[in-house]
Amino acid sequence: MPDVLFAAWVIARKDLAIEFRTRSAFFSAVIFALLGLVIFYFAWDPTAVTVNDLAPGVLWVIFTFSGLLGLHRSFGVETEDHAIDGLLASPVSRESIFLGKAIANLIFVAAVQLIAIPALVVFYNLPLGNVAIPLIAIAFLAAVGLVAVGTLFSAMAVNTRLAELLLPMLSLPFFVPIVIAASQSTAKLLSGRPIVEAAAWIKLLIAFDIIFVAACTVAYPFTVDD
Amino acid sequence: MSSTISSGGPPIVEVAELTRAFGTRRALAGVTFSLGRGECLALFGPNGAGKTTLLRVLAGLLRPSSGSARVSGIQLPGGALARSRVGLISHRTMLYEALSPRENVSFAARLYGVRDVNARVEDSLRRMSMLERGDAPVRSLSRGMQQRVSIARAMVHTPQLVLADEPYSGLDDGGARALTSLLGELRSAGTAIIVVTHNLAEGLSLATHAAVMQRGRFVRYDPADRIDATAYSTTYREALAGA
């Protein structure tokens, strides 16, 4: 297990170094998130819908779609001059490759969230109060599930001609249960309900994370081994 | 045609009746050979003959459909242990363009669990004359320089078996000489090498054995003492014509 995790970290570090150099996916995702916030803001009628009702939906639509930009890039970098062959011919396990990609994607999505959540608070004058920490925890839990599913489908879609189209088509149906649990628990928190009322949704989120991370880690080798 | 090479030690590569099919098409159709320490097999043949498929099976990237393939005594697909014994060079560089040569080679060294990573990386880059450009992004290097880095990446873990698929592709004269010299050094140190190339002279300059592949099988196989390098182009054409 330590070998698996060490190799995963080596791969994640490599992916993050590439993203740090190019910043292409990160800037695209951040700009997408900020533009989404602006568009939703101008489409919003505050007299009809309160900010607490609107914010969870806005937040999770933005996270879901901006995350897809990074997820597509995840295996896209491996297609450059067949870098994936070098990775697959190395002695690291397929599970390490998946986990390494997923860790890098998780850090990517978390970095986008770190910019998007404060932007949402500022744009919508959202009273976060004492729910900031639980909200960050929910965002993290949801990101784990989204990243696990997205990383697997990124690996499956990357070698197809319509990868950009196929990745969202494959991923979004599996994102739905995570986004429902995340937006419901976010709504409870933002509307000032006690955290115990959101507990059932948070537990569901944790359950989805465990299932998706385990299932996707097991399934990944089948996407690369012939 | 089966081909056995005796080298006075356990063979590094043992392949017996190996087949690999893609749907109904058989890319490998019963290949048999073995290769010992310090031996080099030059593999020739037209496009689509199955040369690259053979290398990909030995590298652990493809599963055999039937037959048997062993690397260092490990039955393929042999997982991480078998893959750790192999170094793969291709006409595709398998490099990350945004990273530097040093970072690419260092990444490979860490994946292979190399001890003293920095020293090995410097040594690999030095052997391929890439130390000076070691920190430039790979995308800023010429095709030949990228190929040199790719070779340094494949050698960093001192493999027992080197699989080289068109390794001279994109190399200038200096790079080609450095590669030939490096492969020669590796051979002298006991590394087994399989070189796939369309260039007969380059292949034969290193080879202890030569084979011609067509339609997934060896149609000619010659040990070193029977290779007449000057007449091999005729031999090659005749082998293809007679297959």
Task: Describe the 3D structure.
The complex is a heterodimer of chains A (about 230) and B (about 240). Chain A is mainly alpha-helical and about 230 residues long. Chain A has eight helices and no strands. In chain A, α2 packs antiparallel against α3, α3 packs antiparallel against α5 and α5 packs across α6. The model of chain A has no long low-confidence stretch (mean pLDDT about 90). In chain B, about 35% of the residues lie in helices and about 25% in strands. Chain B has eight helices and eleven strands. In chain B, the strands form two sheets. In chain B, strands 7-8-9-4-10-11 form a six-stranded mixed beta sheet, sandwiched between helices. A five-stranded mixed beta sheet of chain B has the order 1-3-2-5-6. In chain B, a hairpin with a 2-residue loop joins β2 and β3. Chain B is globular. The termini of chain B are close together. The model of chain B has no long low-confidence stretch (mean pLDDT about 90). The interface between A and B is medium-sized, with 24 and 30 residues.
Number of strands of chain B: 11
Q: Unreliable stretches of chain B, pLDDT < 50, 5 or more residues?
A: none
Helix content of chain A: over 70%
Strand order of the largest sheet of chain B: 7-8-9-4-10-11
- End-to-end span of chain B in angstroms? 11 Å
Tell me the fraction of residues in β-strands of chain B, as a range: 25-35%
Structural class of chain A: mainly alpha
Morphology call of chain A: globular
Which two chains have the most extensive interface, and how many residues on each? A-B, 24 and 30 residues
- Individual helix count of chain A: 8
Taking the sheet with the most strands of chain A, its summary is: none
Order of helices and strands of chain A: HHHHHHHH
Measured by DSSP, the beta-strand proportion of chain A falls in under 5%
Q: Count the helices of chain B. How many? A: 8
Looking at the chains present, what oligomeric state does this protein adopt? heterodimer
Morphology of chain B: globular
Task: Report the C-alpha radius of gyration of chain B, rounded.
Answer: 17 Å
Report mean pLDDT of chain B, rounded to a whole number: 88
Q: Helical content of chain B, roughly?
A: 25-40%
Mean pLDDT metric of chain A: 90
**Uncertain spans of chain A:** none
